[in-house]
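Give me structure tokens for this 132-residue protein.
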Amino acid sequence: MTTCSPASSDGDSVRSPAVDRSVLGEWFPNDAAAIDELLTVFRDSALTEHARLAEALALGDLTALARTAHRLRGVALSMGARALAETASVLDAAAKAGDASACLLAMAGVEAAISLMVAEVPIPPAPRPRSA
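Here you go.
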């Protein structure tokens, strides 16, 4: 599920960022490096949660699916990843309702939102070897 802003005056639509960095900017004003580091941890955590969601869905464990989607929603909100939080909330509700078909559809939205977020979060450069 992609969140788009209204069409611009030339008719093109512009996609909103997957992560609103200003949310973290309130915690770390003028510290882009700290924000990047926190978002890197979030990216890795979201990928881990995605694997847990996929496993729970494959096993038909809607209780674990709901619990994991709820956790992902909360973390995504705190990181400024609103679209991911929204799709995780839809998945949480579908799992709690016991609707496996809706869970499959909602999972596709979560996966799309994670992909967009991962594309925006910088991958830090590998540390350089120290020269002797």
